[in-house]
User: Fold this.
Amino acid sequence: MKPIAFLLLFVLSLYSCNQTKKDNQEQMEIWKNEVTQTELDFSKMAQKEGMNKAFLTYVADNAVLLRNDSLIKGRSAIADFMKNSTSKGLKWSPDFVDVASSGDLAYTYGKYTYTYQDSTGAEKMSSGIFHTVWKRQKDGSWKFVWD
Assistant:
């Protein structure tokens, strides 16, 4: 009887481990989808309502922007930096999203294009790669802490 009980316990523990792993993978996909949707909503807002509003909507209080080899630290400094930015020509989409197993940090990267008018009025386009770090807020939303 003991070998059968041991075998039964062993099989149950294997099933439990596999179920936990499956549940964790499902949770990770849910979080990745949340971050992806947040990134897409952020980009859509930048195109429709301008970069200033979009960045101030999705910025965390302690966020940092890297711009022109300078760090802009904190929501207030970012607001000052962005206040004159009304452009709607910035578009991006994540190519990759990953979330920490704790579900509180994530990062994305992908391609962006920025369309603008130069001093002669000619339309110019710049493109590149972006990288954003996201942090889950107390209310469950995602805000960027590094861009």
